[in-house]
Amino acid sequence: MQSLEELQRIRVPQFEEVLGKPFPILDDGFVRVIDYMGSDEAVVQAARVSYGKGTRKVSEDRMLIRYLMRHRHTTPFEMCEIKLHLRVPMDCWRQWIRHRTASVNEYSTRYSIAIDASQTTPPDGWRLQATQNKQGSSGFLDPETGRRLSDQEKELQDLARKVYNDRIATGIAREQARKDLPLSTYTEAYWKIDLSNLLHFLSLRMEANAQYEIRRYAETIGNEIVRLWCPHSWEAFHDYVLHAVTFSADELQVLSAMLAGGADGAFRAAGELEWLETKDGRLRQNYERAEFEEKLKRQGIAVPWGEDAQAVV
Amino acid sequence: MQSLEELQRIRVPQFEEVLGKPFPILDDGFVRVIDYMGSDEAVVQAARVSYGKGTRKVSEDRMLIRYLMRHRHTTPFEMCEIKLHLRVPMDCWRQWIRHRTASVNEYSTRYSIAIDASQTTPPDGWRLQATQNKQGSSGFLDPETGRRLSDQEKELQDLARKVYNDRIATGIAREQARKDLPLSTYTEAYWKIDLSNLLHFLSLRMEANAQYEIRRYAETIGNEIVRLWCPHSWEAFHDYVLHAVTFSADELQVLSAMLAGGADGAFRAAGELEWLETKDGRLRQNYERAEFEEKLKRQGIAVPWGEDAQAVV
Amino acid sequence: MQSLEELQRIRVPQFEEVLGKPFPILDDGFVRVIDYMGSDEAVVQAARVSYGKGTRKVSEDRMLIRYLMRHRHTTPFEMCEIKLHLRVPMDCWRQWIRHRTASVNEYSTRYSIAIDASQTTPPDGWRLQATQNKQGSSGFLDPETGRRLSDQEKELQDLARKVYNDRIATGIAREQARKDLPLSTYTEAYWKIDLSNLLHFLSLRMEANAQYEIRRYAETIGNEIVRLWCPHSWEAFHDYVLHAVTFSADELQVLSAMLAGGADGAFRAAGELEWLETKDGRLRQNYERAEFEEKLKRQGIAVPWGEDAQAVV
Amino acid sequence: MQSLEELQRIRVPQFEEVLGKPFPILDDGFVRVIDYMGSDEAVVQAARVSYGKGTRKVSEDRMLIRYLMRHRHTTPFEMCEIKLHLRVPMDCWRQWIRHRTASVNEYSTRYSIAIDASQTTPPDGWRLQATQNKQGSSGFLDPETGRRLSDQEKELQDLARKVYNDRIATGIAREQARKDLPLSTYTEAYWKIDLSNLLHFLSLRMEANAQYEIRRYAETIGNEIVRLWCPHSWEAFHDYVLHAVTFSADELQVLSAMLAGGADGAFRAAGELEWLETKDGRLRQNYERAEFEEKLKRQGIAVPWGEDAQAVV
After folding, report:
1. Is B8 among the domain residues?
2. What is the phi/psi pair of residue B109, to 5°?
3. For B245, which of D243, D247, D288 is closest by C-beta distance?
4. How far is C78 from chain D (nearest CA, A)?
5. Nearest-Cα residue of chain C relative to residue B77
């Protein structure tokens, strides 16, 4: 296996420069690194325990890390651990906490007075309901109307805080006084997670469909923190997860037809999947076809049944 | 091991009568059982796989279950699973969701309009901040002052809902419109957990120190649901966990002295632990001594250094 | 949300016919279903709690399940639970138990006499070490030499059992007597897991790279059990996970070039990735290129740099 | 909360002296510390995030840690992480791996040749089957007979290794060649776990009932490693978990009676629990009574129904 000489802790000097430094997010949030264990080096070290001496001759660390990421060998990435200090609106935290594979110590509003800060929205920051995606937003409200909503938001947040302070002054227990604080109230937490689970969190929360607020945190954690901490792992995650595309069994048939013969074959393959049913001379809505078109377009590949057909949907 | 004849699913007929029935909690919450797998019988069945044929001769199911509970053999209790439908204020849900060993599907306020109900407080329902326990409550506000707080609560909740509705009407995305809803807003969720982890949840949330709201849910789940579903496991949990008392190494020394010789020995033992330091002729505050006194009193056992000493603390 | 009328447990009548029935695997192993909770119907039920009334109008169950699977919305699949009884060689169990998201009760060889059965290998069942894949096998030993190994295997297993029996007869503790049993000794366990985690297990253990023994169990659980229990989920898993292919950022560039212009563009794109370096007039070994070629070939797509180039590698 | 100045990683200088140093266990096993994150200081730091500024004035770190341990506030202890390198017999590892809350990279005998070492037993090291505790051992075999068993053990282990080597030489895949290695074969692993889960592991595996082999590892990890790494947490664990005793609801009744009035009351209380049933003039076997007697005796407290009664059981 490996020789048993004394060891030093693994350190990443350039990363230690950001320890404790808050990366600002939203109007009053942040992420800071509190401590960490391991690095790319620890991933390699762990993989080599699994594979024994044999691996020694295999290429270098970067290649090994890329291999592990590509083949979903996730356990070596669990050997790195990071502890972050977060300041985040409670509404965002409600989503965050659904990830069960982390350790958490949150600021207690049973024990202490609630943090006196809420996420506020500027007049040009009100997002419109998406019509395609029932759980997303798309575009912004005009700033004049937004002004009205921002004023209303301030009025509501001010009243909520006044009521909270009044309850506290009246002697009400903190655990009950907080009950009508708005979800936009900031909370803070220590959040500790291993690299494998962190990357999984990032793969879900850096996605275009993730809600704007948590996506902002995820992007900062990924691009500012993980990239500095474990650069090879981050690069491999980038190439094999974040910017990879998965094609379903059905999609592969159309793709193969496209590669084999061009438009005709592709039409036939899509037709067999009932992707090209029409109504009144136009393609009917079909989610699987639409998602395939979306994947092609993101790669700059032409949709075989044409832009027009697409436009009709 | 066991014969391999065909099996029937384990059923608990008297329990199936409550399937789907909401047990009301707080002003507008509930717990309902949606489905379950296993029962006391499944605990025994699993234990017998571990122990092989040998156990057959051992006493009957109730005794085996008590033995498992007493000796922290938790894995057989994981063989039972329950799925509940909850309606609970978001503030309470924030505590609930910290238990990471359950499966959860929560009502999505990104996807759908937020539930139009908030937990309200009657004039005589305002709890006062505890002074001893920094994170608890103790006693109630007088109802006259409470009336003012209840009115104020209604005003705030009404405004918050009006603002929410206005945002929705203006076309704001649901994911953003919800940002200032009060923590008292009800949410709903399916919550699925195994019996072992459920009992752990109950041991923490049925405790006197747990916040009133979540304690009400935990009591209902324990006393109304688990008791009916797995009566032997519930009884064993009652005897060996809920109503058991753990004495620390230090406490055991005082207890032993009390049993051996009475007050003198107990004084000496407590003295050696520096529990009986005085200031101005009175016992100084000492958390470990206070907790020991509390345990004795709950069992109706006299505190060796007397009521007076106690009163002084 | 949903109406609160009384509920029946979800049942899958055709699935209940296999309850308790052992599916034989290897020479002396099996898998049996002991109990289950939920089905495709429970996945839909849970998704509708998340999405609220809104979803009602959306298409039917199968489409919803396909949508959830495609978009990695895994939590509704956690709402189904299954409990299996396994008989499996300890060596295989060593791999199995690495999946941490299940509940387990294993037959105890501390408590009971070890099961008197070991996995045996027929003369034509000895697999040769793969040379490409350091952790795999490839092809079989000739049966004559295999005969010698099978005889030797029997001799070793017989001695091991004799030694075990002798220790037991001498009064040695079972926990110590077992210490030299071969890894091929069968063990039994109850294994309980939710559908989401089970599918993840199957995605790893039905893969061509998984070891033969555990792959045999995984195939039986997938094809014989899950397919019957949750047919829509199984179909979706099949299409979107098992038979899906993920292309990395690099691979997508080559693929796009192939779709856009054919061989020339593909050569250029691959060249930029340094996939086509040569040595002595032949392509150098390159893992990422080789994996891409493998993906193309599995879809019946021609490798742009030709069969010859490929053969050289 | 806390000021946001730059931070240094938490270090425990005296602990770093043991990094990489193998602590030998059994005949050829060891535990070594590879890396760590946090310490007692991190526990306190995390607790103070939960409790906010308020806690600052509260006593010092040791007291806070003791409070957290006593009240089962486990999350701050999750903020410390340790990574160990283990060398352990596979049979012992089979128990170890049942703890699901750790990260693991084990030496792969699919990828590499199996470690050429097995746990051996000296002639005076053969433990006899306990009669009281069906899953334990008690006392030792006489060394003469033990000599025979040790010789036999060597013969079996030698044959197993010869067969393994022969298979490898014949070209059999490593994944299959290993199938008849004895459970006593050593394996190695990196094992990473947080302090809270590690203490839970230790509470189960340092118990008198844990099997000798794993207990030896647990004792070393506790007494040599955790004690040095997190001395306050270790002390608190010692006092409030390892050397604490839990009395059930029934036991508390007898204990209360003993404290109130001595033997008479205790007899009455025990009688009501049906602990003192007799048969042929002797106390019948009763597990709960026997366990209570055991607890008393460990504290040096006399059993109220006398030594004789006890002897009869």
Report:
1. no
2. -90, 5
3. D247
4. 18
5. C103
Give residue B136's pLDDT: 86
- Nearest-CA residue of chain B relative to D285? B59
CB contact under 8 A, C239 and A252: no
Say whether both A92 and A60 belong to one domain: yes
By C-alpha distance, which of B195, B197, B214, B213 is closest to B205? B214
Beta bridge partners of D24: D30
**Per-residue model confidence as pLDDT tens digits over A242-267:** 999 999 999 999 999 998 877 788 99
Task: Say whether C78 and B49 touch across the interface (CB within 8 A).
Answer: no
Q: pLDDT grade, residue C59 (50/70/90)? A: low
Confidence bin at D263 (pLDDT 50/70/90): confident
Overall size of chain C counted in residues:
313
Pairing type for strands B23-25 and D23-25 reads unpaired
Q: Which one of D101, D133, D150, D156 makes the best mutation probe of the C interface by having the most chain C beta carbons within 10 Å?
A: D156
Rounded Cα–Cα distance for residues C237 and C200 (Å) = 10
Judgement on whether residues A24 and A108 belong to the same structural domain of the protein: yes
A306 shares a domain with A279: yes
Chain B partners within 8 Å of D258 (Cβ): 259
CA-to-CA distance for B271 and B31, rounded, in angstroms? 49
| Cβ contacts of D153 on chain C, cutoff 8 Å | 163, 180
Q: Inspect the interface and report whether the beta carbons of A247 and C243 lie closer than 8 Å.
A: no
Residues C162-190 have a mean pLDDT of 98
Chain C environment of B108 (Cβ under 8 Å): 50-52
Of B54, B258, B287, the CB nearest to D134: B54
pLDDT in tens, C14-47: 999 999 999 999 999 999 999 999 999 999 999 9
pTM equals 0.95
- Regarding whether D67 and D41 lie in a shared domain, the answer is yes
Mutate to test the interface with A, among B93, B105, B134, B175 (most CBs of A within 10 A): B175
Q: Is the same domain home to D164 and D268?
A: no
Rounded CA separation D157/D151 (Å): 10
Q: Do C46 and B16 touch (CB under 8 A)?
A: no
Digit-coded pLDDT (tens) for D189-229: 999 999 999 999 999 999 999 999 999 999 999 999 999 99
Note down the domain range covering A55: 13-113+184-242
Q: Are residues A63 and A136 in the same domain?
A: no
- The answer to whether residues B30 and B73 belong to one domain is yes
Q: What amino acid positions of C are annotated as catalytic residues?
A: 205
CA distance C3 to chain B (A): 10
pLDDT at residue D144 in the model: 96
Instruction: Evaluate whether ipTM surpasses 0.95.
Output: no
**pLDDT exceeds 50 at position B54:** no
Residue D205 appears among annotated catalytic residues? yes
Assign B127 to helix, strand or coil: strand
Cβ of C129 within 8 Å of Cβ of D173? The answer is: yes
Residue A118 in any domain: the answer is: no
Nearest CA in chain A to C241: A248
Structural domains of chain A, count: 3
Do residues A162 and A29 share a domain?
A: no
**Residue type at D273 in one-letter notation:** L
Domain final residue pick, A161, A180, A199: A180
Q: What CATH number does the domain containing D38 carry?
A: 3.30.1360.170
Mean pLDDT for B222-234 is 98
Q: How far is CA A8 from CA A46, B97, D177, D190, in A?
A: 16, 39, 37, 16
Q: How far apart are CA A243 and CA C252, in angstroms?
A: 9
pLDDT tens-digit profile of C248-281?
Answer: 999 999 999 998 877 788 999 999 999 999 988 8
Tokens describing residue D44:
């306190």
Q: Is C118 contained in some domain?
A: no
In a domain, C7, yes or no: no
Rounded Cα distance, B161 and B177, in Å: 10
Contact A78 D50 (CB under 8 A): no
